[in-house]
Amino acid sequence: MNRMIDYMLQEINEQPTFLKNLLITSKEKIYEKLNQIREKKEIKRIVLTGCGDSLCAALTTEYAFNKKKLSTMVFPPMEISRYKYRFFDLLDDKTLLIPISVSGRTPRVVESIHAARSRNCSILAITNNPDSPVAKKSDDIVYAKSSKVESLKTTSYEGEISSQYVGYEHDVPQTKSYTAVQMALLLLAESFGKDPDYSELESIPDIVKKTIENPIIKELGIKHSNASKHIYSASGPNYGNALFGEFKMYEFSLIGFSKEIEEYCHTAYFITEKGTPVIFMAPREIAYQRVSEIAPILKKIIEANPIVLSEEQPDFDNSNWLEVPYAGSEENSVIPYGVVAPLFAYWVAKERGLNVNTFRGGVEQEKYVEGSYYTIRSSKVKDDY
């Protein structure tokens, strides 16, 4: 297997370019698709759903839809297809279901489409694969286009079963597909406005470029590579990014935790020890103000290592600071803030000597991918509603 190219870092560095291309090629198409749906049916409610990274992306963008005065909720797809949809009036002919699946093959996401179809919902999927079951079963799709379709049909895994687990350009912890989905969702949210203004979103690719080129991310990743655990904390729309950071640690078989900022004080605080890195995503105002109360205590009393992601350098203590040079609205901050966690995880894994070009850092990855094929891809889809 050729491992000369560092595919994970390559995909991270590709983000500014493809985000810019996605904006140029998709904003008008997304606006048109949305209007076509609204011409047929009134939309009063939006339900976002997805698994793994897609669920994180949904959580980060829920706020943007609600800012457009649209009642918007995020649920894992199994909650829709086998639980909540039975008991709450979530799905009806005025609901727009937005199922998200990068591969387009996630069984529970497919299942949520069947459930929504039985309730006469409109269905607009977001996927990286326009030839997938999710795409074919939805009314229409927003094509995230972070990978060439042909690359989604092959894999580097060599086992009889693991080689069937296809759907990603490279078999590495995903990064650019996540920001692509976030951008597609934010474009969709903005398109609900009477006079959509995409200018703030158009500034994001350059901000992402500045952020991922910040050498301090590498320095802090290396510095904290030997920590027994890493904690990510955020509130509001960036909470999904904290969860995404936790997931990237798992994908390298490392220990990560995520907690909403207030809940951190009640829970993960008690597993924070001397030297534990706690990464706070703290855009100005609400999140920043709360972190300014918490971080100094961690530093002084626990002797932990708070790392603050914010627009301006914190003035409350000598916490490590990672600049996110974004000054726009908080709902659109999620892409610039979200690119830090996977890059940090990459440098932690790299410094530990793990294989950053495959899942679990190369530790028994074939076995685990085979297990994922059975537990996820081959799971039976419920379609009788």
Note down, in words, how this protein is organized.
- The longest helix is centred in the N-terminal third of the chain and has 34 residues.
- The strands form 2 sheets. This protein has a 5-stranded parallel sheet with strand order 2-1-3-4-5, sandwiched between helices. It has a 5-stranded parallel sheet with strand order 7-6-8-9-10, sandwiched between helices.
- It contains 15 helices and 10 strands.
- It is globular.
- The protein has 385 residues and is an alpha/beta fold.
- α1 runs antiparallel to α8, α2 packs antiparallel against α10 and α3 packs parallel to α4.
- It has 2 domains: 206 residues, Glucose-6-phosphate isomerase like protein, domain 1 (Rossmann fold), CATH 3.40.50; 149 residues, Glucose-6-phosphate isomerase like protein, domain 1 (Rossmann fold, 3-Layer(aba) Sandwich), CATH 3.40.50.10490.
Computed structural class = alpha/beta
**CATH homology-level superfamily of the largest domain:** Glucose-6-phosphate isomerase like protein, domain 1
> What is the percent of helical residues?
40-55%
Number of extended strands: 10
